[in-house]
Amino acid sequence: MKLHLSTPPNRLIKADIEITGSKSESNRSLLLRALYPNISIKNLSNSDDAKVMEMGLQTRKGTVDIHHAGTAMRFLTGYFASQAGTDVTLTGSQRMTERPVKVLVEALRRLGSDIEYEKNEGYPPIRIKGKKLNERRVSLPADISSQYISSLLLIAPSLENGLELELVGKITSVPYIKMTLGLLSEIGAVNSFKGNVIKVEPKTMVRPTVLTVESDWSSASYFYSILALCEIGSEIKLSAYKKNSLQGDSVLADIYEDFGVQTSFSDTHILLKKIGNHQQKELQYDLANAPDIAQTIAATCFGLGVGCHLTGLHTLKIKETDRLEALHTELGKMGANISVTDKTLTLMPSSTLKKDVAIDTYNDHRMAMAFAPLALKTSLYINDAEVVSKSYPDFWKDLQFLQLAVREAE
Ligand SMILES: O=C(O)C1=C[C@@H](OP(=O)(O)O)[C@@H](O)[C@H](O)C1
Ligand SMILES: C=C(OP(=O)(O)O)C(=O)O
User: Which of 86, 123, 184, 297 is most buried, judged by most C-beta within 10 A?
Assistant: First the structure.
């Protein structure tokens, strides 16, 4: 599906939008519920990634295809490895077979797991024969993806001796590890994270517990971007969010103050208000703790003609696509003066925004959603716009509440 987005005549926006549950919290909660049936979940994400996770967790034998879902791939690897009697081949989209799992597989093997690569060493598809794991200690590199660590932590309380992880190297995407530990605490699983050591104690039973998934902060980023690009006085109410979030992307509330967007929190929602314009000429952010909002911020800066220097982007090359290359190409097509390395992105201030460029999305939901707000500045096409369903299936429907003119192009 190719969409055409045109600039609305009025850039003063008022809207009230309910966003689906966080896919990260959902996929963790689903796994914990599979281990401890006393758990129930509220506000589960309606994303493709949560659906494939739910489907995967019901499988004991045969092939599980998790499509593009990185968390499902990594979390199910740990889950299947620890479930005696399962025999599953875990695979995904073409891109998933290029996203590494070696660090996780090796750590699980050291804990006693039986996992084999079916094609390329270090990458899915993998065949997992579940076994009871009772080793307690393992060390693993922490600088490639936090999902490997979360995968081990999620099964940790269900293991006879719990787990003690020694994290080697600079720890990346730390808030996602803390999210996992936060959820373990919610179900009463004792854990600690000191220096580079994480300990989780075993837990055989969980009392009836409701895990309420907060709405997705990465999805909220597109509305922050929209407000940054529209007129002072605009406001958007988003639910259901809370101040003490488990999601690291809630740092958006601080970052977008630089763009004149103010966030106020209530019990159930956040109210975003455009109260001023950006001040600085060049903005700098280290996004090692919030990699999923890099595309949004780069597109916002481009739309405003502001320069930015983004660092801590070393994980972007192994996500749904090589996001650094994708941003370089697509922002470049729109007229940006942009350069990237394998961990940084630099955008020069500029005011050129070409009209009616067709943005390629590379099977990456965030490419589609990050570019959409640019419609407030110029008309553009989004190719394969259905990719948004990976995390936010209602994205295009919700954009209509903002009177953004979205129509199918062909
Ligand atoms: O644990 C999670 O839910 C996630 C961790 C992050 O991945 P990395 O740790 O690979 O950066 C993030 O990019 C991804 O969207 C979700
Ligand atoms: C990187 C992402 O997802 P995953 O790694 O779970 O595929 C994302 O949603 O931006």
Answer: 297
